[in-house]
Amino acid sequence: MIWLGIESSCDETACAVLQDEPLKVLSNPLYSQIDEHALYGGVVPEIAARAHLQKIAPIAEAAVKEAGIELKDIDAIAYTTGPGLMGPLLVGASFAKGLARDLNIPAYGINHLEGHLAAAWLSNPDIEPPFLTLTVSGGHTELVMEEPGFKYTSIGRTRDDAAGEAFDKCGKLLGLKYPAGATISRLGKDKNRKFVEFPRALHTHDNCEFSFSGLKTAVLRYTETHDPQFIQDNLGDICASLEDAIVDSLVSKTINALKKTKMKTLVMGGGVSANSWLRTRLQDYCDKKGIRFCVPDRSLSTDNGAMIAAAAIRRVKQNKLTSIDVVKPWMPLAI
Ligand code: KG4
Ligand code: ZN
What we know:
There is one protein chain. This protein is of the alpha/beta class. The protein has two domains: 2-117 and 302-327, Nucleotidyltransferase, domain 5 (2-Layer Sandwich), CATH 3.30.420; 131-262, Nucleotidyltransferase, domain 5, CATH 3.30.420.40. The protein contains eleven helices and eleven strands. The protein has helices spanning 34-38, 45-67, 86-103, 112-123, 163-173, 181-188, 213-225, 228-233, 235-261, 276-289, 305-317, and strands at residues 2-7, 12-19, 24-27, 30-32, 76-82, 107-111, 131-136, 141-147, 151-157, 265-269, 292-294. The strands form two sheets. Strands 1, 2, 3, 4, 5 and 6 form a six-stranded mixed sheet that branches. Helix 4 packs across helix 11 and helix 5 (163-173) packs parallel to helix 7. Residues 112, 116, 137, 270-271, 303 line the site of zinc ion (ZN).
């Protein structure tokens, strides 16, 4: 089967064409709205919805063209139903359903977070639940157990900000452009992670929960009590220390969850899963304990269309996918 995956939950308009047997990403173009939001230091929902509206058709066309297929070759569509921004989600859903109706094929709604984890499955298609999952994105930070049949149990989550949000907001305080995660990682590479002792919230608590709002306050205090030139001169070391604080929290709570659940496989997904320091730290622990660690190809860590189609394919393989019925004629509206 040939799948078209559509992702429009936040600030990327993304479409991808995947084939299921053998599993392969045939194309995965996206339009990033980052420049349109950069001016405001974060995503503006109305601007995002309008940009999706303008870009979704051209990106879908590009996906089909790059895959070397024609629209009529698509057998099914998968699109993001949430969580995400209402306007952007509506644009993706309307486009998916309209196209599905036109092509007389089914359209399937997919959970965005399941999509992030399916990106790791694309690189490790033989993994079988049960396993522990860590979703780390701009909007979510959560440890969830997945058992056969897509049975999910939350083990712990953030009490306030998400890890990606912490990177972005602390980055903003340091004068970095949104989204700041990858920039902080780049600036902090091989720098002094002990330069600033930023707080690790809930470190002494024997739980699997995260909290990053205190870190944000600590960075704010740091910028208020240090000379801007000093911060500029030592930005690499400050970024390294900040990255270490966020990664430390993620690693220690994930280790706690692995111990509590006794899982032998850890699956990570979401934009922050692109972070090299986080990957290294978790890989080291998993290697020591004989735990299998599955991550997405770095290019598939952040939002993309391939992960949405992949999640649908994964569900089809386990008979756990229901479509909205787009092939029946619309019912006339009762007036
Ligand atoms: O999954 P994603 O693309 O969108 C959401 O679903 O939220 O994640 C975006 C988040 C942003 O906060 C961004 O700063 C962060 O992922 N991010 C990173 C890296 N690449 C992206 N954070 C740390 N290190 C990275 N290399
Ligand atoms: Zn995402």
